[in-house]
């Protein structure tokens, strides 16, 4: 009789993977420490909660949730296309930006292909590469920024895809339009270049790449990732999108699971697009919160990386895990930099004014201990 052994059945690429470890939820922390209010500054969600217009739109769509959603998100695609001034055929709506990354990996990466990314990558880039038998080529940063010249030098005749995360998570740094153009000049045209712009809405630097212009003017296979999880305040609904030449979208659509973007997410994203007020309020909160936190970190003599996103990478110069636990005991969840090889760093979402004050108060107390 043969002995059952699941390890012999599972794909070897899956065997080697670790499951994604999400940070603790508010509810878990509340249970652990019996705090009434827990502040989550670990996942870079919108700290303003969902937009009122989005909530209303979801409520009015509830009577139709017995129906399958629009399988190609056609109304939403039309509206995003008109916002961006592109053809709707250049868009694919996905179950979060994460699904787009998996679709790219599953459509294009084959065993032996090399996939280039910045050091420590991003868990989804790694998974999408590894499960398809691709080889990860991780290029160290230069001054906490993508080292674009080194990434260009890492290209070989096996390179299939390059992931560029701009602004970078967790560093919060960017590369400019000019730097990207110079990079593209060195990259052969048969490589897929993914510009992950999950946090682009928060960027203040005017030299940030105009990726939509590049999509029109550049002949590379560019894919731009955007999400409604951050600026849209709807991380829980799971909706994002990809912008790419039509021929790339054609292949991604072939393997996208049917109806992977639910009807409430589609309705919510459309309501968000019509809600300029929410976006402006969130951006203003981010600008003010950033200025306040910089000022307080300076006062506490803590060093940090100036950010173009909705989070700050802060160097505590002490074991980040210890500080993370101490903050958790005080009801504040942040992400330890250990995940990205920075043992003394914390990645902290920029909160509301009240949350930022509570964070500073807690950090100051921890530093005094
Ligand atoms: C760099 C980066 N890319 C992509 C994503 C995917 O976001 P989502 O799947 O929520 O759209 C995230 C989410 O945190 C991210 O940080």
- Helix segment tally: 15
In terms of quaternary structure, the protein is single chain
Q: Identify the CATH class of the largest domain.
A: Alpha Beta
Bound molecules: pyridoxal-5'-phosphate
Q: Characterize the main sheet.
A: 7 strands, mixed
What's the number of structural domains? 2
**Low-confidence parts:** none
Gross CATH architecture of the largest domain:
3-Layer(aba) Sandwich
Rg on CA atoms, Å: 21 Å
CATH domain fold name of the largest domain: Aspartate Aminotransferase, domain 2
Tally of DSSP β-strands:
13
Structural class: alpha/beta
Q: Percentage of helical residues?
A: 40-55%
Strand and helix order: HHHEHHEHEHEHEHEHEEHHHEEHEEEH
- Tell the overall outline: globular
Provide the CATH superfamily of the largest domain.
Type I PLP-dependent aspartate aminotransferase-like (Major domain)
Strand content: 15-25%
Mean pLDDT: 95
Main sheet: strand order? 2-8-7-6-5-3-4
The first-to-last residue Cα distance is: 63 Å
